[in-house]
Design a protein that fits this description.
The chain is 39% helix and 21% strand. With 367 residues, it is an alpha/beta fold. The chain folds into two domains: 218 residues, Rossmann fold (3-Layer(aba) Sandwich); 106 residues, no CATH class. Strands 5-2-1-6-9-13-12 form a seven-stranded mixed β-sheet, sandwiched between helices. A two-stranded antiparallel sheet has the order 3-4. A two-stranded antiparallel ribbon has the order 7-8. α4 packs across α8 and α8 packs across α9. The longest helix is centred in the C-terminal third of the chain and has 20 residues. The radius of gyration is 21 Å and the shape is globular. The two termini are 26 Å apart. Bound molecules: S-adenosylmethionine.
Length: 367
């Protein structure tokens, strides 16, 4: 008998991760939870290695490591790939503590400025100068892993002191009280050390790649299972809400990452009677599903969390359309579990319909 957690609607969001050590090192609005991965692995008897072609900040990968399972992840965003890697490495705690002590003894001073003027406007000057100071000091840390951990702490601190809030898919300017960068940053590193001491993630380190999953070529029949959630149709322009982190630390101009899954075209496709943007989304998803199908071992399963598309005059039922796309490729549908339903509104007042967020379970048949 299938066991569906009562709170599945919460598990498909990142919220439960806020209370999970290491998972909560970087808040990612688009993520799902560690408990979702735990449930999927057990419920569907998922085999390793587990692949996540849209790994975001590494929830699948870290959950697998905690379960002692091998995994591999891809994300097109340099920020997401970086966070995934930093959260899943083995660390020597004494090395982190030694560097932390050196940082405690330093007082930040102005030594230069980030070149990105547009982003600079979103900070109090002194705070951004302090962030720049630590950024340069982090560059001097010898060990690459320790360097990455400190950089992740600084990226998190930067998000906290920036005079913006992430609302829905956009950044809104909002003045914040001037918080001391040193205290926040070193406090974050201290918390990370405590998490590493508390949490035993003894499984294998996952492989993480910054790559476009439409083009990844994995060896045929090399993957045991897939657990993932693709970017949602018409939902979040990933680069704009992370433009501060990308602009300061990854020298990424505001590229349109969303164009990597679903082209920004408007209008309709009369063959499918769908908005062109949705059509492009399913074409792109078809490419990723094909790659995953090839990589899966026969009998391997794919568990995919997908949300419906909310357009001004209609809803697009992504779960059913993705199943159709998957069946064309050769997948067999085992299940579709509706995790939650939300209203799709136009101008915040007119109800267009209801969109579903569903968990799809697909299988590559054994021939
Ligand atoms: C819904 S989020 C996944 C979040 C993840 N489950 C977690 O818990 O962190 C989708 C991710 O897909 C990534 N993405 C978008 N297009 C991509 C592509 N073509 N190839 C790989 N990753 C892509 C985005 O950067 C984003 O991190």
């Amino acid at each position: 008998m299938q066991m569906i957690p009562k709170d599945l609607r919460d598990l498909v969001t990142f919220v439960p991760n806020k209370a999970e050590p290491i998972h909560n090192w970087f808040y990612y609005k688009e993520g799902y939870s560690r408990r979702f991965v735990d449930w999927a692995v057990k419920e569907f008897g998922l085999q390793e290695p587990i692949c996540d072609p849209f790994c975001g900040v590494g929830t699948t990968l870290l959950a697998c490591k905690q379960l002692g399972l091998e995994s591999i992840g891809f994300d097109v965003s340099p920020l997401a790939a970086f966070v995934s890697e930093a959260k899943t490495r083995e660390y020597k705690i004494e090395e982190i503590e030694a560097v932390l002590q050196k940082f405690r003894e330093m007082e930040p001073k102005q030594i230069g400025k980030f070149p990105n003027k547009k982003v600079r406007r979103l900070f109090y000057e002194k705070q951004l100068d302090d962030i720049y100071f630590y950024y340069k000091k982090i560059d001097e840390i010898q060990d690459a892993r320790v360097r990455a951990l400190f950089l992740l702490a600084l990226i998190d601190t930067t998000g906290r002191v920036a005079n913006v809030v992430k609302i829905g898919g956009s950044l809104r300017k909002q003045k914040k009280p001037k918080m001391p960068v040193k205290k926040l940053f070193l406090g974050k590193v201290k918390k990370m050390v405590l998490d590493l001491k508390r949490v035993q993630a003894s499984g294998p380190e996952p492989e993480v790649f910054q790559a476009d999953s439409r083009n990844v070529k994995l060896e045929e029949n090399s993957v045991g299972s897939v657990v993932t959630s693709p970017p949602y149709l018409n939902k979040i322009e990933y680069t704009s809400i992370y433009k501060i982190e990308l602009g300061l630390f990854f020298r990424e101009q505001e590229t349109r990452l969303r164009a990597h899954i679903q082209d920004g075209t408007t209008g309709r496709d009369f063959g499918t009677k769908m908005p062109l943007m949705a059509k492009a989304y399913f074409d792109d998803m078809g490419k990723v599903l094909k790659n995953m199908f090839k990589a899966l071992k026969p009998g391997g399963k794919a568990v995919i969390v997908v949300g419906g598309g909310c357009f001004p005059y209609e809803v697009v039922e992504s779960d059913d359309l993705l199943i159709e796309e998957a069946e064309k490729i050769g997948f067999k549908k085992l299940d579709k579990i509706v995790a939650r339903k939300v209203h799709c509104m136009r101008n915040r007042t007119i109800k267009v319909g209801t969109i579903r967020e569903s968990v799809l379970v697909l299988e590559k048949p054994i021939l």
